[in-house]
C-alpha cells in the first residue's frame, strides 16, 4: 500500500510540476515572453483545442456548402434536380408509349390491316358500354325548351354556314382515269388513279405530314393528318416534296406520281382515305376526272 501511494504521489508531482517556457532575443538574450506550464495544463489545453477543432469541422460540414464535397452528403438543390429529372423521365416514357401506339396504328394503315384495329378499339371502349334498358331516354321539359330556343335562333341566323362534317370538301390530289376503284370486300382500301409519271400530287386538305418515307412494297409513301381524325395516304410516288412534321395547305404539292414499290405495275397514284381508323371510298368525296 505504501508503494502504491508513493507511485501516485510521484505521478501527481510530475503532472503538477511547474515548467517555464521562455522566449529570448537571440542576440541580446533578453527575455521577451515567459509562460508557467505543467504537464497537466498542456494536456488539458491540448484536449480542449482538439475538441474545439473537431466541433468547428462538424459545423463547417453541417452548415456550409463544403458538405457537398464529402461522399454521402447531398444538397437540397441536387435532390430537387433529381426529383425533376425523375418526373421528366416518367413523362418521356409515357410520351414514348403513346408515340409507339400511334406509329403502330399508322403501320396498320399502311398494311391495310383493320381487323385487329377494330378489335382493339372495341376492347378499349368495352368498359364504357351501357345497357340501353337501364337508360331513361324520356325528354325533360328543360331540354325541350332549350332545343326550341336554339332552333329559333338558328332559323334567323344569317351568318350560320350549312356544312356537313360527314361530307367534307376535299381537293383532288390528281386528275386521271381510275384504274382500280375502292373495294372493301377485296380489301382494296384505295382508289388507283393513272397519271403520267412526274404529275404533281396535291394535298386534299389542310393538314400535317405524319409519315414521309420509302417502303419496299409501296415505294415512296406520304400520309397527311387532317381535322376530325381524317387521314389521307399517297403511295407509289416517284418522289416526295414534304417531310414528316411539315404543315401543308389544301392543293399544295406533296409528291409526284411514280412507279415505285413491288406492288406497282405502272405510273399511278394509290390514294386512300381513313376516317378515325376506318377506310372510306375516296370517290364519295373527290372527282378524279
Question: Can I get a quick summary?
Answer:
This protein is 35% helix and 24% strand.
List the helices and strands and how they pair.
Blueprint: H1 2-16, E1 19-24, E2 31-37, H2 39-63, H3 76-111, H4 115-124, H5 141-155, E3 177-180, E4 191-194, E5 200-202, E6 207-215, E7 219-225, E8 230-240, E9 247-248, E10 253-257, E11 268-275, E12 278-280
Antiparallel strand pairs: 1-2, 3-4, 4-11, 5-10, 6-7, 6-9, 7-8, 8-10, 8-11, 11-12
Structural class: alpha+beta
N/C terminus separation: 130 Å
Q: What's the CATH class of the largest domain, please?
A: Mainly Beta
Order of helices and strands: HEEHHHHEEEEEEEEEE
CATH topology of the largest domain: Glucose Permease (Domain IIA)
Tally of individual helices: 5
Number of strands: 12
Q: What form results from the Cα inertia axes?
A: elongated
Strand content: 15-25%
What Rg, in angstroms, do the CA atoms define? Answer: 44 Å
Helix content: 25-40%
CATH level 4 superfamily of the largest domain? Glucose Permease (Domain IIA)
Count of all domains:
3
Looking at the overall shape, the CATH architecture of the largest domain is Distorted Sandwich
Mean pLDDT: 80
Which oligomeric form is depicted? single chain
Unreliable spans are 156-165
What can be said about the biggest beta sheet?
10 strands, antiparallel
Structure description:
It is a single chain. With 289 residues, the protein is of the alpha+beta class. It has 3 domains: 2-62, no CATH class; 76-111; 177-284, Glucose Permease (Domain IIA) (Distorted Sandwich), CATH 2.70.70. It has 5 helices and 12 strands. The strands form 2 sheets. Strands 3, 4, 5, 6, 7, 8, 9, 10, 11 and 12 form a 10-stranded antiparallel β-sheet that branches. The protein has a two-stranded antiparallel sheet with strand order 1-2. A hairpin with a 6-residue loop joins strand 1 and strand 2 (31-37). The protein is elongated, with a radius of gyration of 44 Å. The model is unreliable at 156-165 (pLDDT under 50).
